[in-house]
Amino acid sequence: MSDFVYDLIGLAAGVLFILALKGLSHPRTARRGNLLGALGAGIATVVVFFHGEIENLGWILGAIAVGTIIGVPAARRVQMTQMPQLVALFNGVGGGAAALVAIVEYLNLGDKATTAVVIFTVFTVVVGCVSFSGSIVTFLKLQELMTTRPVVFPGGRFVIAATLAAVLGSSAWVVIELGTTPLLVVAGLSLAFGILFVLPVGGADVPIVISLLNAFTGLTVAASGYVLNSTLLIIAGTLVGASGTILTRMMAEAMGRSLFGTLFGAFTAKPQDTSGAVEDRPVRSGSADDVAILLNYARRVVIVPGFGLAVAQAQHTVRELADLMISKGIDVAYGIHPVAGRMPGHMNVLLAEANIPYDQLVEMEEVNPTFGQTDVAIVIGANDVVNPAAQTSPGCPIYGMPILEVSNAANVIFLKRSMRPGFAGIENELLYDPKTMLLFGDAKASLTKVVSALKAL
Amino acid sequence: MELTAIAVISIFTLSIFVGFEVVSKVSSTLHTPLMSGANAIHGVILVGAIIVCSHASTTLELSLSIAAIILATINMIGGFVVTDRMLEMFKGKKGAEK
């Protein structure tokens, strides 16, 4: 195949990627968009075998088979609740792959590498490694294999600044001196920087960081495209880098977070005690019967689903409860916070899985003004998204995040497993409010009890 | 063919604008699938991994590039599959609206 034809097919794949991103931006065309993207990637992968000399063909096909055997079942079997961390992991391995590609090409070129190629190689290695190790940390945080609270240690900001300086210094070393050892030093330091960079990020901000690292990986792919002289990789990588940056900004806006504050939290965060002296205060806990009675006499009920609902796999039970209330003539709506779940839009996916009618899902801006006329707000496995501290206490990690103003409802019911604070690790004042009733226990078990109590009334 | 500097800069700049433009207005409902889809697209680094593997000459180069192919394949194929699973849910929603 001639270079011209090869590049032309590469361009076609690039166009398919643009159409994919465009399609993914609208609900109706999203699925087709994703398939167009897969088609583009498939074409690009197949044609590379028909261009130039391919040695090690057996190894290449074997490695692709291994990757498929690992990737497909992981993507198929993952619980919808655990999807954000899987995306983080996929992004991380992509960054790692880009860094490895750059290292191999560097070894291969040896003295033939021009300064520009070396600079782009170093860029790919640095950003790819940061994306790899950073994504692993976000995975560990979301999987709750490590604490979800910001990890801040004394002098942390100096350690981070020093590591960053070391990364930049050793990068300059590679460009001037060349050689394999300096490049490996750069890779090691970048891996360390990726870890240090994500550790101080609090649980609620993790999705923003994943999105940012996604954009980073895109840029590394673009840079490796320059090194390998591949137009397709430059186009695809830049597209993802640019759209990922915009997406990161939109996510931060939806969560009411400043991007700058999230990124440089490491340099401003101070160790803080998140609990305060509120723990010993009394709370009002009730039984399933108490909840059922409250609901039975309500005219309007708003259900606020959170991640705890999904973890307990209670989507179907909550739907049963909603249907029962509707049959009793009660006006029912679901108040969906933009970041309910673990990521923007995650909750919509989880509820759609349980076939909850779309018109009952009300977005935050629309549901907030109606809480004044709401008799009961049921908060199921959510905490941070209804925490008034986001409006009242500057200094707390979620301050400024828009919340569902359930405290304006006449009664608030919390279904919780325990008094443990939410993902962001912040105490919720609303739990101690006199109009709040708590029903402790697994969300699914509690809801089942409420449903049978309500049926009996 | 060898790319000239100005060609690279042009491709890069225009791609940035296209990238900004295509996702400028997206409802928060689609943020997660869009991120996941974009994530799968950068799995096309698989092409780069195949290219470097195809001319790897030492054992070190070969083993590193094989690792790169495995990682890139996971990123690309896994990414598209998981995005499709997410979007399947949205289709189910349409059925419920009837």
Automatic annotation (TrEMBL), chain A:
Instruction: List the transmembrane segments.
Output: 6-24, 33-51, 57-75, 87-107, 113-137, 158-176, 232-252
Q: What EC identifiers does the entry list? A: 7.1.1.1
Keywords for this protein: Cell inner membrane, Cell membrane, Membrane, NAD, NADP, Translocase, Transmembrane, Transmembrane helix
**What Pfam families is this protein classified in?**
PNTB
List each coiled-coil range.
none
Q: Which GO terms describe its cellular component?
A: plasma membrane
Q: Where is the NADP transhydrogenase beta-like domain?
A: 8-452
Q: Which reaction does it catalyse?
A: NAD(+) + NADPH + H(+)(in) = NADH + NADP(+) + H(+)(out)
Principal localization?
membrane
Q: What is this enzyme's class at the first EC digit?
A: translocase
List locations, semicolon-separated: Cell inner membrane
Give one GO molecular function term: NADP binding
Protein's membrane topology: Multi-pass membrane protein
Relate the protein's function as given in its record. The transhydrogenation between NADH and NADP is coupled to respiration and ATP hydrolysis and functions as a proton pump across the membrane.
Which family would the database say this protein is a member of?
Belongs to the PNT beta subunit family.
Read off the PANTHER family from this record.
NAD(P) TRANSHYDROGENASE SUBUNIT BETA
Q: What is this protein called?
A: NAD(P) transhydrogenase subunit beta
Q: State the organism named in the record.
A: freshwater metagenome
TrEMBL record, chain B:
- List the membrane topology term(s): Multi-pass membrane protein
Please list the GO biological process terms of this entry.
NADPH regeneration
Q: Which residues form the NAD(P) transhydrogenase alpha subunit C-terminal domain?
A: 9-91
Q: Name one GO molecular function term.
A: proton-translocating NAD(P)+ transhydrogenase activity
What keywords is this UniProt entry annotated with?
Answer: Cell inner membrane, Cell membrane, Membrane, NAD, NADP, Translocase, Transmembrane, Transmembrane helix
Which EC number(s) does the record attach to this protein? 7.1.1.1
Presence of the UniProt keyword ATP-binding in the record: no
Query: What's any one GO cellular component for it?
Result: plasma membrane
Top EC category: translocase
Segments spanning the bilayer are: 6-24, 36-57, 63-83
Compartmental location? Cell inner membrane
According to UniProt, the reaction catalysed is: NAD(+) + NADPH + H(+)(in) = NADH + NADP(+) + H(+)(out)
Pfam families assigned: PNTB_4TM
Name of this protein: proton-translocating NAD(P)(+) transhydrogenase
**Source organism (scientific name):** freshwater metagenome
The root-end lineage is: unclassified sequences, metagenomes, ecological metagenomes
